[in-house]
Amino acid sequence: MCRGLRLALTIAALALSCAAPESARDGSLVDDAGRVLAFEQPPRRIVSLSPATTELLFALGAGERVVGRTRWCVDPPEAERVASVGDGLNPNIELVVAQRPELVLFYHSPMNDGAIAQLDRFGIASASVKLDGLADLRRAAILTGRVTGDSVRADSIVQAFERDLEAAAAPGSGNGPTVLLLAWDNPPIVIGATSFLSEVVTLAGGRNAFADLEQPSATVSIEAIAARDPDMVLLAGGSEDPDWARRPEWQVVRAVAERRMVAASGTEFSHPSFRAPHAVARLRAALQEAKP
Amino acid sequence: MRRWLLLLAAAAAALLMGLVVGPASLGLAAVWDAVIGRGDETAQSIVRGLRLPRVLLAFLVGGSLSVTGATLQAVVRNPLADPYLLGLSGGAGLGAVAAIALGVGGAWAVPLAALIGALLAIVLVYRIALVAGGLLDARVLLLAGVVVGAFAASLMGAVMALSPAPEVRNALLWLLGSFDGASWQALAIFGAYAVLPLAVLYAMARPMDLLALGEEPAQFLGADVESTKRRLYIAASALTAVAVSVSGIIGFVGLVVPHAIRILWGHTHQQLLPSAFLLGGTLMVVADAAARTAFAPLEMPVGVVTALVGVPVFVWLVRRWAS
Predict the structure, then answer these.
(1) Mean pLDDT, rounded, for A203-209
(2) Which of A236, A270, A289, B88 has the most C-beta neighbours closer than 10 Å?
(3) The complex's ipTM?
(4) Is it true that the peptide bond before A187 is cis, omega within 30 degrees of 0?
(5) Residue B63's closest CA among B238, B272, B216?
(6) In sequence order, what are the beta bridge partners of A184?
(7) What stretch of H or E contains A105?
(8) What is the C-alpha to C-alpha distance for residues B316 and B82, in angstroms, rounded to an integer?
(9) Mean pLDDT: which of B91-105, B170-184, B287-301 is highest?
(10) Of B86 and B120, the one with more pLDDT
């Protein structure tokens, strides 16, 4: 597919596919698990159980209402002042309840079904938010804006974000460098096309070397990587010159042997947020610099 | 003689097959060109840099695990004994997980930590087993192996639950077993290391036959039972520990291959050990080829494949033996 067309489709997907959060017939809100959300007044105490929703709440100006977060929620820096309740998947319900929340925001996963049922028994409202890619961000932002009672602000932030993303994205012809997105070296775990990081690579003008993988990530062999001979390696976290790159078996991958590696360091690469345009711009510059 | 020819032919066929198949589709001619250093550069580096050391390492590890399995089955006189039974997998796992959780750097950090964990588990099991009056009692040895394994597994669970590093789960993936880390360097290290324990085990084939009869009969027949058991245990465990450091924990081969050889060709260890080495190596090369090609570019843990291939073969053998 032509690179420009693909870029246009990605941006269009952001704008169109998730135009608004689901609404029930009576106009009340529905979360990503299909549960109806009804509030007499916007919740004042919110526990957020995923880094993406925590960052979103702060970005929408509702940071002061966040009374609980996971240990992984470190963005923005102010979030670290909020009490941590531990993990976001299968959370410690006693700690969550102790924050006396009026709403608990969950990452949408079957692993959290038990925790949601427990909160139901305590009469504490909860919402599941799927926030895996850029296309989810707009819907999640509008949903969260309606929940916190500030839809106008959410709409304007989303519009500004889309403008920034379009400006940061690389105009290209579809023959940008192929990029291996490597999450781990032993065993080699690569990132597939359905992940957020892959979206960032595409917008930055690169092509995911494992774009055909249906899974967000998967274990592959070094031979499979060598056979695809990627132009560059994008390391999800870590340094640009990792120790494992000196291991003899990795020298068969030319991009590793020639140290054509870029590190996606920083949390703007780890989950979808309004900092995505910054991530795209950084990666675009890095890809250009590291060109073979 | 026919048996040896058959085993050698199967091993050669498996090694050739392992060299020809892989996620990068190269034809037989391209593979041959690559082996002799001609043709496409990428094909050459894939065949000579990855596939060749990989199939050889898989063969060596598969053979070694089968020999250690046969040895431990004789030492503890328990058909359920396998190379990892005596606390080794727990120790190796704890070492690998701890290295990642503590952020230990270095290209060889995880395999080295697994080796240290496995060796510590061996020492601990050995010390516990000796509490029964300074003798290496097979029952106490088994129990010590199980409790040390369970203790290490619990510590590993605690590290995983408390560690802030999400990468810790990847240590478990590594432990599930793979030859993807194979290189000429790893092959040379393992090969050089394996020679001594394999030679010790083969040299003790005769005392192993006596031991298999029971400790008392072995004693009456002139075997130094205690020293034999100690030497066998130390050689087998140390060999398994190094196997873990190059390939993770690959179950089933060490358990089933010795039994298959016993069913097919009898119990004499002088025959059993080399036959088990060849068959174990062959099975491992075939399993590894399946692991990297069945769902390419995805790779399955090789231990999953050894069980998938080995269980039906073993059931067939047992049925044949029973009838």
Answers:
(1) 93
(2) B88
(3) 0.75
(4) yes
(5) B272
(6) A189
(7) strand A103-107
(8) 20
(9) B287-301
(10) B120
User: Would you state the structure tokens that stand for residue A246, as one six-digit string?
Assistant: 């000196």
**Listed residue (B299, B35, B134) closest to A213, CA to CA:** B299
Cα separation, A291 vs B189, in Å, equals: 37
Q: Is A239 on the interface with B (CB under 8 A)?
A: no
pLDDT in tens, A215-240: 888 999 999 999 999 999 999 877 77
Residue with tokens 């926030």: A131
Interacting residues of B145 by C-beta distance below 8 A, sequence separation 6+: B85, B86, B87, B88, B125
Residue pointed to by tokens 């319900």 = A93
* CA gyration radius, chain B: 20
- The total number of residues written for chain B in this structure: 323
- How many whole angstroms separate alpha carbon B225 and alpha carbon B231? 10
Query: Which H or E element spans position A207?
Result: strand A207-208
Euclidean distance between CA atoms A178 and A149, whole angstroms = 43
- Per-residue model confidence as pLDDT tens digits over A112-125: 888 999 999 888 99
Mutating which of A186, A215, A256 best tests the B interface, going by the most B Cβ atoms within 10 A? A186
Interatomic CA distance for residues B124 and B141, integer angstroms? 11
Calculate the CA A31 to chain-centre distance: 18
Quick check: B298 and A219 CB within 8 A?
yes
Amino acid at B115: L
State the angle between helix axes of B225-247 and B184-203 in degrees (0 to 180), rounded to the nearest 10: 170
| Alpha-carbon distances, residue B240 vs B243, B247, B287 (angstroms) | 5, 10, 19
Helix, coil or strand: residue B164: coil
CB atoms within 10 A of CB B53: 20
- Contact, B219 vs B253, CB < 8 A? no
- Please judge whether B23 and A184 are an interchain contact, meaning their C-beta atoms are less than 8 angstroms apart: no
Place of tokens 């039974």: B85
Helix H or strand E segment including A145: helix A134-148
Number of Cβ atoms within 10 Å of the Cβ of B2: 6
Helices of type H across chain B: 2-20, 28-35, 41-44, 52-75, 88-101, 109-129, 138-162, 168-175, 184-203, 205-212, 215-220, 225-247, 253-265, 269-293, 302-322
CB atoms within 10 A of CB B217: 13
Contact A159, A141 (CB under 8 A): no
Mutate to test the interface with B, among A249, A253, A267 (most CBs of B within 10 A): A249
Kindly state the DSSP code that residue B168 receives in the 8-state scheme.
H
A105 touches chain B (CB under 8 A): no
What span, in angstroms and rounded, lies between the C-alpha atoms of B131 and B140? 9
pLDDT band at A23 (very low <50, low <70, confident <90, very high): low
Query: Which residues in chain B touch residue A219, judged by CB atoms under 8 angstroms apart?
Result: 173, 298-299
Bridge pairing between strands A46-48 and A66-68: parallel
Query: Touching check for A267 and chain B: CB below 8 Å?
Result: no
For residue B167, the chain A residues in CB contact (below 8 A) are 184
CB neighbour list of residue A157: distance below 8 Å, 6 or more residues apart: A59, A60, A141, A274
